[in-house]
User: Fold this.
Amino acid sequence: MLRKWCDGISSLTAGIEAIGSKFPQNMGPLFVNIFLNSLLAIALQAFGSQASDINDSHFVAGVVEFRPDFIGLTTEQLIAKHTDAYIEILSSPEALETDIVVFPESTLNNEFNTTYVPAPEEAIIPCLLANQSSRYEYYLIALSCAARDNRKYVIINLTEKEDCAANAAVDPRPCATNGLNIYNTNVVFDREGRVISRYRKVNIYVERKNTTYQPEFAIFDTDFGVRFAHFICFDLLFYTPAEELVAKYGIRNIIFTSMFASETPFLTAVQLQQSWAWGNNVTLLAAGASYPQSGATGSGIYAGSSGSLVSAMIGNSGVRQIYVAKVHKFAEKSPYTTAPETHTTAAAQPQTGVRLLRDPQLDNFNSQLLQLNASSVISVELCTEMLCCSLIAETTTTENSYGNGTTSDAYQYRFGVFTGRRSYEKEQYSDVAICAIYACTDDTVSSCGLLFPANTTIMPKFAFKRLQIEGSFQKTERLLIMPNTLDFSFYSLQPAQVAWNLADKSKSYDAEIALKASADNLLAFGIYANYYDSSSGAHKYCSSMLILSTSVLLWIGAYATDLLYVYEIL
Ligand SMILES: *[C@@H]1O[C@H](CO)[C@@H](O)[C@H](O)[C@H]1NC(C)=O
Ligand SMILES: *[C@@H]1O[C@H](CO)[C@@H](O)[C@H](O)[C@H]1NC(C)=O
Ligand SMILES: *[C@@H]1O[C@H](CO)[C@@H](O)[C@H](O)[C@H]1NC(C)=O
Ligand SMILES: *[C@@H]1O[C@H](CO)[C@@H](O)[C@H](O)[C@H]1NC(C)=O
Assistant:
């Protein structure tokens, strides 16, 4: 069995009993919800009640963290329950002010009950076909009606079917025997319930789904004057279409639906979402499926280099919750310059029960254990063949403790540099370059990226009062350099706490990340560069060829062992 980054639940459905017994559900109190609802109520009063229009400086967005049902229900019951819950959220008081609402992937229908989806060119409003025999399933119609009734843009993910014949002119590949293509698809309804955009997923893995012959770039405009592009989950780690939409098409507002499995120490969900939005300086609306036991959680609204407006990493048994923020529009071509007015995180409290992956290359970093006490000053330089990075750190005392467990402990830190290829799932990988410090539970390399058990109180022995990491990253055509930070609560540091600077030298970028305020609760802090697939310009979307290099096989071995562990967040 391999690890799954995205869409973990559909594959888990069959084996859920086994997993349930290995990873017992932790039914903790739902204080998170209550806390957030009161914040939302306060925030909503400030928003006023009009739909935003083209002359407004902002719009109001909602992203939904959604816990799917999947035990003991038939496909029909399951879809009916999900559809009802979606509609309830769309018509809830929390959603009242939103112009646009994003639901996560894989939380509506499944491959046993697929629906046709009209092409945007047809400008069809499925809701208006409700009383005629139509080719669209009732849930597509019901959600079109919900978008229409509530006058909102709504983005959903579903499993779509298409007659191969309709596509034969552009796709020469052989059709399945039932005459259908099955896609993972994002569907966008406008305020009338009209289907105005459709995106079929490109980066598919171990899903019995078809890929599009050519990658699609799904872009749509709204009546409040904002142009969006949207894509799904795993796409965020790849150049096409995600990075290409920003770098080549100049889109500044991105919608991302996901069921994402977090990986320590650099790619947990909210951490990656914020890093990606900041590195690109774009608005990102990210909605995550909520199933922490399988690793899926993480939603948020991010304002580029102004950081997160709202974000949620949920523990325990997951939630069905909309997170709302007022988002400033980008002025023509100008990046974010102002600080966000609000920043909320769903849980500053310790969480439990999120299953985490670990970076399979972490043991291969060129790293050095930092010998730090409460009054250290150190300076370290480490290199790989491709990259040298420097670290300057100063520490001071701290009185803080985190959690109220029965034992206490403190993390140690390594400074590490890595350049090379990392795989995600068996045939997909990126070339990355990383310079960072990361937390380890002891002085060994193999303890890095692990967390202390939930019953441990973390009592840091020092705080970083200065922490600065610099590196010079070789320029290539496909490259995204991101600030990457993670604290004990699994959120990233905000622009008030961290400075990020990227200087364009002709052949390279000089990147620097530095603390602005002292911190004693870091799990990771550094620079993460994604060079995507630097070895070839060729696209591999249609190929399912397994790249069998020895190193890939080794990594697969490492994943299998990873699966034996459950890393609990504090
Ligand atoms: C936006 O402002 C322009 C110029 O003031 C005005 O003509 C237009 O009607 C406004 N549009 C909306 C939707 O209010
Ligand atoms: C989109 O949702 C459907 C239905 O829940 C799911 O089967 C599919 O896997 C999802 N998309 C992706 C990319 O996983
Ligand atoms: C469909 O029929 C129902 C009941 O007859 C009616 O209430 C509803 O307005 C109709 N919907 C449309 C879109 O015509
Ligand atoms: C779609 O997937 C099915 C099942 O894997 C396969 O038989 C068929 O050839 C695929 N269609 C295309 C156009 O690739």
Observations:
- Residues 1-43 form one domain.
- The chain has nine helices and 27 strands.
